[in-house]
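Morning, I've got a small favour to ask if you have a moment. I've dropped the whole record in just underneath, so have a look.
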Amino acid sequence: MGRAAQARRDEIVRLATTTGLASVEELSAQLGVTASTIRRDLAHLKAAGLLARTYGGAMAVVTHPEASLRQRIGEAFEAKRAIAAWAASQIRPGETILLDSGSTTGALAHELRHAVDLTVATTGLNALQELAGATGVHVECLGGTLRHVSQGFVGPLAEAALSRMTFDRVFLGADGVTAEDGICEASLQQTRFKELMMDRSRHVYLLVHAAKLGRRPFHAWARMTDPWTLVTDSAATPEALEPFKSRNVETIVVDPAHG
């Protein structure tokens, strides 16, 4: 599947999640493709479990179970890789950084495998696996209770370990994000931990591909600590970015085609 099709399908999910029911005709006009193309997109998204079809349109599955890390790794792959490359370019030798669990932060860990004189603390098993052989990186695991679905650690033991460190930069992921409410996740345990991660870090970055902007898939939220930086990809529309810019959030848009 080409980048244009992936970007279009990500946008359909975002629109359906934020505005609810959308007809084939509305999506066709808004995205500039034929109705038959939209129907193929909807069939693909339904098969992937991202949307529920209704007569003539698409409706977001707001009660859909949390996607596993394995399911998320293949989603918007090129966008995540470009976001991770930009994030890696911000890190300086000698710094101590904190990586959230998730597929995009796992991609960032991949970018850091050849770093020198760097300390990385993480809650993500995939990040640990990426950095296991990185001899120039000092790795700290914030252990705790493993959430099998996200392959990340949370809970009181992870919070206790976090309280003993401070960080130059934290890189967070999210199931969704809005300018008003912050980071959306499946559980309050996750959102509490993300807030603690932000409190312990000098610079806060949220790494999310465009389809997650404005999404509210669950009911647990983490308030963002000002100032913070939103890093997303070029599939993000001006309308999706405007609420963040209006709140003076530093917004970085990377182009996967030039990553």
The chain has two domains: 3-60, 69-258. The chain has a mean pLDDT of 87. The CA atoms of residues 213 and 240 lie 6 Å apart. DSSP finds ten helices and 15 strands in the chain.
